[in-house]
Amino acid sequence: MEDVRKNGAPQDLDELRAEIQRTRAELGDTVQALAAKADVKARAKDQVEQAKAAMAVRVHDARDAVATRAHEAADVVSVRAQEAKIRAHDAGDAVRRNPVPAAAIMAGAAAAVLLTLWLIRRRR
Fold it and tell me: d(Cα 17, Cα 84) in Å, to the nearest integer?
């Protein structure tokens, strides 16, 4: 058989069969791509899965941020409690070293209470 071409098309039978196979394969790929684009349910499901994954990442990041801030807050509270404890201890030491100001304050408070009670009874 002689290889004669008309309009650039192969005339040999084997070439025609090979061309048909290539065209079928390309057509099959095209049909699959179009079917995937037309499958709205599958595309929506994929988008839902992507949104779920993104939300899971956000939740994980938020949980980590909250845990970090909680630890930082606990550390601050612990430090402040230690500082308050030290100040209270220092104040107790100051009163033990010089009890006169504390005793004077307590005596003044007692005198104020007694004076208030005496004034209330007197007005009756």
Answer: 93
Query: pTM of the full predicted structure?
Result: 0.43
Distance of alpha carbon 11 from the chain centroid:
67
3-class state of residue 9 by DSSP: strand
* Tokens of residue 87, six digits: 């100040």
Return the structure tokens found at 64: 């980590």
DSSP assignment of 20-33:
HHHHHHHHHHHHHH
Question: What is the predicted pLDDT for the residue at 68?
Answer: 96
β-strand partners of 30:
none
Question: What is the DSSP track for 37-67?
Answer: HH-HHHHHHHHHHHHHHHHHHHHHHHHHHHH
The dihedrals phi and psi of 4, each to the nearest 5 degrees, come to -115, 135
